[in-house]
Amino acid sequence: MLTNARAFSSFSTNDVLKAKDFYKNLLALNVAENAMGILELELEGGMEVIIYPKPDHVPATYTVLNFSVENIDTAVDELIGKGVRFEQYNSATLKTDAKGICRGKPVIAWFKDPAGNILSVIENDSK
């Protein structure tokens, strides 16, 4: 029934203007805002993600969006240079290095958007 249905993902934010600035200017993504104040991220490969305003927004406790990159060190360094702060983990099951990169399988680093939603960069060959 849904085999040929167009699908997209979505998540909420508590501040559309901050989200728009973050995704458009800091992450350099194609961002459109529709008449209802909903952001539409146009991602590589024709994928689309919707970010909608929610006054009682609670950040997701899981990764809502992953960006596949060729070289994680380059991507992390560029994002750090733009002011992104990567999450640090040091538990028995999850450890990150000084940059915030978990060098297991997959090689991945997590950061948050202005609303506290968790995003990641993940190295291509580690999928």
Question: What does it look like?
Answer:
The protein is of the alpha/beta class and 127 residues long. The chain has two helices and eight strands, in the order E-H-E-E-E-E-H-E-E-E. It has helices at 16-26, 72-81, and strands spanning 9-13, 30-33, 39-42, 48-53, 63-69, 101-103, 107-112, 118-123. The strands form two sheets. A four-stranded mixed beta sheet has the order 1-4-3-2, covered by helices on one side. A four-stranded mixed beta sheet has the order 5-8-7-6. A hairpin with a 5-residue loop joins strand 3 and strand 4 (48-53). The model has no long low-confidence stretch (mean pLDDT 94).
Summarize, please.
By secondary structure, the protein is α/β, with parallel strands linked by helices. The protein has helices at residues 16-26, 72-81, and strands spanning 9-13, 30-33, 39-42, 48-53, 63-69, 101-103, 107-112, 118-123. The strands form 2 sheets. Strands 1-4-3-2 form a 4-stranded mixed beta sheet, with helices on one face. A 4-stranded mixed beta sheet has the order 5-8-7-6.
Strand order of the largest sheet: 1-4-3-2
Secondary-structure element string: EHEEEEHEEE
Cα radius of gyration in angstroms:
15 Å
Which blocks of ≥5 consecutive residues have pLDDT under 50? none
- How large a portion of the residues is in β-strands, by DSSP E? 25-35%
The major pleated sheet works out as: 4 strands, mixed
* Total count of helical runs of at least 4 residues: 2
Total beta strand runs? 8
